[in-house]
């Protein structure tokens, strides 16, 4: 066999464990995963330093790129450069915050045209379910959307309104006809209070209590039970949701759920007054809640950790006033997802294979991305050289996403991405990503 590339690593995450391996690549795909002592001839051989671990490229199925329409918030070139710098080789773009929102096959074509020729990693797309577009969902699926997202309360942008209970059932009934996937932002509007103006994070947190999530998830479970559709809960922040998920799965409901780096690494009691870079919806909760989310990952109730990269311009964060009630909610973390999660996981004696499962294999499985998320023969040669013990201090000005805002500014994190390969080619500034 004539190989284009061999990446040799004393430590590689293969088959759920860390072992020495030589990974051979032909035409952008993994052709062989051999032992360290195997003799493999290739046009190019890269031997990783002993401080590095070879990982599969991460898969982030929850990214708000916002182009076209709000490209000043984030665009495909900057978002995918940040992804690659953080070891993420595949992203799925959310259907809202761009204009038009991706709620029809025609709008998906507009989104793909905006992305074409700009992307540094592979990019797929979610569609959207809004009131009145149930008849468009099959066409979105047929045009290549991996599923559709809905909100169960105001999304924050007028062009992407939420589904009421009847609209949710209509969307799920249609999706069940072709086994489509619905992903849902689960907060119950009746449980939400207007956040009081001001710099007090506790006031904002109290305005979005855990029962807002539990009530919305309970409603989603009931609708999934009635229609038989597949559903997924995005960005679980309230650990009180976990028993509902476990019971639903035991009852045969086809439901999965994810959480995000900020819910696993941050805690409400640590948010300074006026630090609106920490505002997101649903909110970062307390330390005990954070511990329970980690337990939900450990027992398999939560299957994915994805960024929910949701940036905006600095002005919308209202740093001038520090007003949590007025600031846009969203945390920009795409480039930092891996070191944030690894830093927190390592303090809990969790392993890199576990992190890879949550951040690569799990998201790939959610959307049926065959050939992504693992170092296996036949898979895309999306690879990452990761220094798990190297530490750095976060400087937002050095991050590749469009606006230099980060909730992790000044934090010391563990884990540095040294090289990212996309289909066997190092990501080097040339936009070689594909639209999936």
Blueprint of the fold:
Blueprint: E1 3-14, E2 17-26, E3 29-34, E4 42-47, E5 53-56, E6 58-63, H1 76-85, E7 88-93, H2 105-115, E8 122-125, E9 127-128, H3 137-142, E10 148-151, H4 165-177, E11 181-185, H5 201-207, H6 210-227, E12 230-233, H7 242-250, E13 255-259, H8 261-265, H9 287-298, E14 304-305, H10 337-347, H11 352-367, E15 383-393, E16 412-422, E17 425-426
Parallel strand pairs: 1-4, 6-7, 7-8, 9-10, 10-11, 11-12, 12-13, 13-14
Antiparallel strand pairs: 1-2, 2-3, 5-15, 15-16, 16-17
> How many DSSP H or I helices?
11
Could you give the order of strands across the largest sheet? 9-10-11-12-13-14
Summing up helix and strand content along with how strands pair, one would put the structural category as: alpha/beta
Compressed to H and E, one letter per element, the order equals EEEEEEHEHEEHEHEHHEHEHHEHHEEE
| C-alpha end-to-end distance | 29 Å
- What would you report as the Rg, rounded to the nearest angstrom? 21 Å
Main sheet makeup? 6 strands, parallel
β-strand number? 17
Spans of at least 5 consecutive residues with low confidence: none
């Amino acid at each position: 066999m004539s190989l284009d590339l061999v990446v040799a690593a004393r430590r590689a995450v293969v088959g759920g464990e860390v072992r020495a391996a030589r990974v051979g690549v032909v035409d952008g795909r993994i052709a062989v995963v051999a032992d360290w002592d195997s003799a493999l001839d290739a046009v190019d051989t890269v031997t990783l330093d002993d401080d590095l671990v070879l990982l599969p490229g991460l898969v982030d199925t929850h990214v708000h790129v916002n182009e076209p329409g709000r490209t000043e918030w984030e665009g495909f070139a900057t978002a995918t450069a940040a992804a690659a710098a953080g070891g993420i080789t595949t992203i799925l773009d959310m259907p809202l915050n761009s204009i038009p929102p991706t709620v029809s096959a025609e709008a998906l074509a507009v989104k793909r045209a905006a992305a074409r020729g700009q992307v540094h990693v592979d990019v797929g797309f979610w569609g959207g379910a809004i009131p009145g577009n149930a008849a468009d969902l099959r066409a979105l699926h047929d045009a290549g959307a991996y599923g559709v997202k809905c909100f169960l309360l105001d999304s924050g942008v007028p062009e992407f309104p939420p589904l009421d209970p009847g609209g949710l059932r209509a969307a799920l009934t249609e999706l069940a006809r072709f086994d489509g996937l619905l992903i849902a932002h689960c907060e119950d509007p009746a449980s939400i209070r207007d956040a009081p103006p001001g710099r007090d994070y506790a006031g904002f947190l109290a305005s979005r209590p855990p029962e807002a999530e539990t009530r919305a998830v309970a409603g989603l479970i009931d609708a999934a039970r009635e229609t038989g559709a597949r559903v997924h809960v995005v960005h679980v922040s309230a650990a009180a949701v976990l028993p509902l998920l476990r019971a639903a799965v035991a009852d045969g409901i086809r439901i999965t759920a994810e959480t995000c780096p900020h819910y696993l690494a941050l805690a409400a009691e640590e948010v300074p007054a006026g630090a609106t870079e920490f505002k997101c919806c649903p909110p970062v909760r307390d330390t005990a809640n954070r511990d329970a989310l980690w337990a939900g990952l450990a027992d398999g109730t939560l299957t994915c950790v994805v960024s929910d990269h949701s940036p905006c311009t600095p002005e919308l964060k209202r740093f001038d006033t520090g007003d949590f009630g007025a600031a846009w909610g969203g945390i920009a973390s795409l480039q930092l997802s891996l070191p944030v999660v690894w830093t927190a996981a390592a303090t809990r004696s969790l392993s890199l294979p576990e992190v890879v499962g949550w951040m690569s294999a799990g998201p790939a499985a959610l959307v049926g991305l065959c050939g992504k998320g693992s170092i296996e023969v036949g898979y895309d040669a999306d690879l990452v050289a990761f220094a798990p013990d190297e530490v750095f201090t976060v400087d937002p000005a050095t991050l590749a996403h469009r606006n230099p805002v980060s909730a992790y500014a000044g934090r010391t994190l563990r884990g540095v991405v040294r090289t990212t390969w996309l289909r066997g080619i190092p990501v080097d500034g040339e936009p070689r990503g594909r639209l999936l």
